[in-house]
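Q: Could you write out the predicted structure for this multi-component system? I'm mainly interested in how the pieces pack against one another.
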Amino acid sequence: IQLTQSPSLLSASVGDRVTLSCKGSQNINNYLAWYQQKLGEAPKLLIYNTNSLQTGIPSRFSGSGSGTDYTLTISSLQPEDVATYFCYQYNNGLTFGSGTKLEIK
Amino acid sequence: EVQLQESGPGLVKPSQSLSLTCSVTGYSITSNYWGWIRKFPGNKMEWMGYISYSGSTSYNPSLKSRISITRDTSKNQFFLQLNSVTTEDTATYYCARGRGFDYWGQGVMVTVSS
């Protein structure tokens, strides 16, 4: 399954509601996760099974979707959210999306 | 706390083998799954393979002929070997826990160059 993330680069202001998209080439059956990777750090699991928040992750992060289309939402963007975000599917094989780089405007 | 740490050479010559070690503390590798993922320059991430709690393995089909993942349960370590490397194998290599990758190492940058 191929994953396409959009946009590849997103610039938003502190406090904005931000939405990142991940689209699969086939049905993912909700076996989708999101990772955050800050510069020079290891990726961090944010969301698994489409909408389950990993322990310790702030509640401003949420996930949704079904079928082939999935979304990561940050309800109020914070400066520490600057990072690249990857989606990842584990329904059929294990594949990552190409990433969305999120910056502060 | 679960911690993973990759180690190995940062430079490998073309056609040689790349060998990395992942040392795990705070959790036994005889439970769960343990994988290798790499991130290429330009941000593309690729799952390479994993070894299970029982020692069974699963590999990315694109690497199947070149990759081997093994483990030493007495040292709580697992290993990656990638044979016949080319410059296209230049990447940052990560080890991680589970098929959902809830814990990651910091990564080790490996350059393939003569």
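A: Regarding packing and overall arrangement: Chain B has no helices and ten strands.
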